[in-house]
């Protein structure tokens, strides 16, 4: 199994920095006072397509050979990865074939179509998504770009933590949310290489705790009927991602839905930025005192800001 290392993140960054935003790092005096810790937020909610996913998609698309690129790229996704891949493909001038469950949010369907992707709708089951994608790939010869269990995607996601460390210096703790593990595995690769003494911590909703159970039992546990407002964190860990997480991540903790909503609201109110529930999960872990961060300098990757403003949880 091909696992990226830090030199792959550096290679990815040469590509990604041409097309992606170098997102700002923000901090909040009032949040720091509430938690008694110095927090630095890497604002991937201000990234293109509104999420860190653009980094990985961009690296994967621009790493294809000319021959592969001519046939386009394909994936199944109802969310941020679909939009990210569609935009990256448009920038390279190639086709993006996206398989989306027919019950995907209208705002996501519009976004993906707006970036010029060719959408094929399917039943909202994993089996339907995978079989429809297989059919599309057979017909088009497109290269599948998995949302997280992909060498180039992981390397691309690692560029966010790399930039955070370059811009703000040393950290004692680096935090990210975990769903499929693309952001967390990339963050761990960069953080442990640049700051070997830095602890890498992940947080996950208690109602979707497959990564927590997988990490602590050292055996892969699938995500079954997850229930959480953090819709970006519903998937099972990818195989590559899990291998990296077991080797490089120090701990994974879980948080309640109430804490996620509270942390999300705190960031909206105090920092005046829009984040989606998944982004609030690391701060929720700090508010719940699930991680030992007292007197430490902490970096948090805010994963994205895509949510339906008509359905806010507060």
From TrEMBL:
Domain of life where this protein originates: Bacteria
Keyword match Magnesium: yes
Domain (Tryptophan synthase beta chain-like PALP): residue spans on this chain: 19-304
Pfam families: PALP
Cross-referenced CDD domains: Thr-dehyd
Keyword Lyase among record annotations: yes
InterPro entries per the UniProt record, alphabetical: Ser/Thr_deHydtase_PyrdxlP-BS, TrpB-like_PALP, TrpB-like_PALP_sf
GO molecular function, one term: magnesium ion binding
Cofactor(s) the record lists: Mg(2+); pyridoxal 5'-phosphate; Ca(2+); Mn(2+)
Keywords attached to this entry: Lyase, Magnesium, Pyridoxal phosphate
GO BP field: D-serine biosynthetic process
Family: Belongs to the serine/threonine dehydratase family.
PANTHER family: SERINE / THREONINE RACEMASE FAMILY MEMBER, SERINE RACEMASE
Protein name from the UniProt record: Serine dehydratase
Species the sequence originates in: Draconibacterium orientale
